[in-house]
Amino acid sequence: MILLDGKKTAADLKQEIALSVQKLKKQGKKIPHLAAVLVGENGASMTYVNAKVKACELVGFKSTLIKLPEDTTEEKLLQEIETLNNNKNVDGFIVQLPLPKHINEQKIVMAVNPDKDVDGFHPVNVGKMTLDLPCFLPATPFGILELLERYNVETSGKNVVIIGRSHIVGRPMSILMSQKRTAGNATVTVAHSRTKNLKEITLQADIIVAALGKPEFLTGAMVKNGVTIIDVGITRVEDTTKKRGYRLAGDVHFESVAPKSAFITPVPGGVGPMTIAMLMKNTLLACERKEN
Ligand code: NAP
Known about the structure:
- The chain is an alpha/beta fold and 292 residues long.
- 40% of the residues lie in helices and 17% in strands.
- The chain has helices at 6-26, 43-59, 74-86, 105-111, 123-130, 139-150, 170-178, 198-202, 254-257, 271-291, and strands at 2-3, 33-39, 62-68, 92-95, 159-163, 187-191, 207-210, 227-231, 235-238, 246-249, 261-264.
- It has a six-stranded parallel β-sheet.
- Helix 2 crosses helix 10 (271-291) and helix 6 (139-150) packs across helix 7.
- The mean pLDDT is 97.
């Protein structure tokens, strides 16, 4: 079993990005600038946004964090987005999801200028991704592709089962892995909550991407020997033995699945750090595309 070490791979990637930033500096060019908008005080969202700001510091990007109160109106948030769209200094920005219930997320995603949409959520980027055109790939699927590539995991002709069809993970992952690309050319099955006999399907899989948000859902009995496992799930599970009162659990029951796996991502330290690294990569791309 080989551990797909997202923490180490993300660190390597960030180092490569930091070198690119140093080069840009030497050439007297613009330094990438990422802005993040956080509405409210959701604990997990604050953790993610802080990690993104910290990653910017590490690679040498400029970053701006815009914190807005929970009761921010949709109109006010749309105004903030318009300001960021028009701010020439900002290369890319994200609006941390989920948003408070009174704000229409789709309206917000649609308001972001696609050229600054480093999350890759705007329909223009989703459309371009589907057509295999240059775009911003959503960070989590982009990170998974990068991890598979860097560990030389063979995907061509393999049976890939993706559990989950969300717009940010499962759906894009299924499109990308079926395309003609290095970590692609796979035969992809997308499973979801209406899928019948999931175990029969996962037992046929050479590669499984578990992205359903149900802690330790995929067990050893559901996978064949030699499988490659990508565990996207991150759920806070109550754990009184921990100081913070919870632990982070993936969608895979690691103890029973790992012994049967050729490759497997741990949680934490797998897909999570890659997601942040790919956001940095997209911001660098946004800056370079603007300059060219
Ligand atoms: P989501 O929007 O809640 O989607 C979950 C998907 O799983 C849905 O398509 C749902 O089916 C499917 N599903 C639910 N129960 C199922 C079951 N019993 N069998 C088969 N399919 C089932 O979730 P998401 O945003 O994609 O996130 C999934 C997990 O990944 C969460 O734990 C999230 O925290 C984590 N995540 C991690 C990262 C990272 O950087 N590591 C990034 C994003 C998300 P239906 O469509 O039929 O409802």
